């Protein structure tokens, strides 16, 4: 039949589909492991962002609540990171496969992973914003009394409009995730190849490339995360937009960049560990699935 694939083409097509399926699965498992490792760092940073506290004060807050509550709220970020990692790596690989044959004539091949990452980051943001919203409410200690459980939060959010409920903060989240994914996938392979060229093992090279990429991403995009945390920390109240929320945040930090970046050091540390582990596990799984 005209237009049908020959056996070799058919096998290559099946292999391409399998690679993409593996990318979804491997992205999810990599994110699962890294999230469990860095969650205490994440919670400390979140407290700094919403309470404008130094590291010692944020740690003191968490210690006063006890070890039982240290992983309070982990279900939402765990689900979010698993889903986000699944979508991010799987969609990036899928988009990259779709772009590669038709785009090489007018787009540099080296830019394709970054462009695919941008598209995957947009989808990830749309799907994962509700999870981040629930997570933010759970991790705000001031919500313990009137919003103590996932169920109570879901009930309250269901009563809100999507824009002020589950999808509050969607715009800055989309900007942060899309730009971060663009940078991460654009730098991931060049960094890995460079580091591996120094004589380090593939696993260590992947870990270091993930760490270095996260450092480039974390600091410039950190203000967006602070805006998101403050927009999402409560239900109800004044429904401010992104610009109004930024102005309020900037005033509350006394127009000080150093106060705005409070928690930034832990963000870099957390991101380095998280993306280092995620990248190493993902690349290792990719290698063994070839």
From TrEMBL:
Family annotation (SUPFAM superfamilies): Mitochondrial carrier
Molecular function GO labels: NAD transmembrane transporter activity
Pfam families listed in its UniProt record: Mito_carr
GO cellular component annotations of the record: mitochondrial inner membrane
Keywords of the record: Membrane, Mitochondrion, Mitochondrion inner membrane, Repeat, Transmembrane, Transmembrane helix, Transport
First and last residues of every Solcar repeat: 18-98, 108-194, 201-288
Major site of localization recorded for this protein: mitochondrion
Highest taxon of source: Eukaryota
Family under the similarity heading: Belongs to the mitochondrial carrier (TC 2.A.29) family.
Protein name: Solute carrier family 25 member 53
């Amino acid at each position: 039949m005209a237009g049908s694939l020959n056996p070799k083409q058919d096998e290559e097509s099946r292999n391409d589909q399998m690679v993409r399926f593996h990318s979804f699965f491997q992205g999810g498992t990599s994110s699962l492991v890294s999230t469990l490792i860095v969650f205490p760092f994440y919670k400390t940073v979140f407290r700094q962002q919403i309470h404008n506290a130094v590291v010692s004060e944020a740690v003191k807050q968490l210690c006063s609540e006890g070890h039982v509550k240290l992983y309070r709220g982990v279900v939402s970020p765990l689900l979010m990171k698993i889903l986000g990692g699944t979508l991010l790596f799987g969609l990036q690989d899928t988009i990259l496969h779709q772009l590669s044959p038709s785009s090489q004539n007018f787009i540099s091949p080296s830019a394709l992973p970054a462009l695919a990452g941008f598209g995957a980051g947009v989808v990830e943001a749309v799907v994962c914003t509700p999870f981040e919203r629930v997570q933010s409410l759970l991790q705000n200690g001031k919500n313990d009394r009137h919003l103590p459980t996932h169920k109570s939060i879901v009930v309250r959010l269901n009563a809100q409009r999507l824009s002020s409920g589950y999808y509050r903060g969607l715009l800055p989240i989309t900007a942060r995730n899309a730009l971060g994914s663009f940078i991460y996938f654009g730098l991931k392979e060049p960094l890995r190849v460079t580091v591996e060229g120094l004589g380090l093992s593939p696993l260590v090279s992947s870990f270091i490339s993930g760490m270095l990429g996260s450092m480039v991403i974390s600091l410039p995009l950190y203000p967006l995360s602070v805006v998101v945390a403050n927009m999402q920390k409560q239900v109800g109240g004044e429904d401010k937009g992104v610009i109004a929320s930024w102005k309020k945040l900037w005033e509350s930090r006394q127009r000080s960049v150093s106060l705005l970046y409070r928690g930034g050091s832990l963000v870099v540390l957390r991101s380095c560990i998280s993306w280092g582990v995620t990248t190493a596990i993902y690349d290792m799984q990719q290698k063994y699935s070839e």
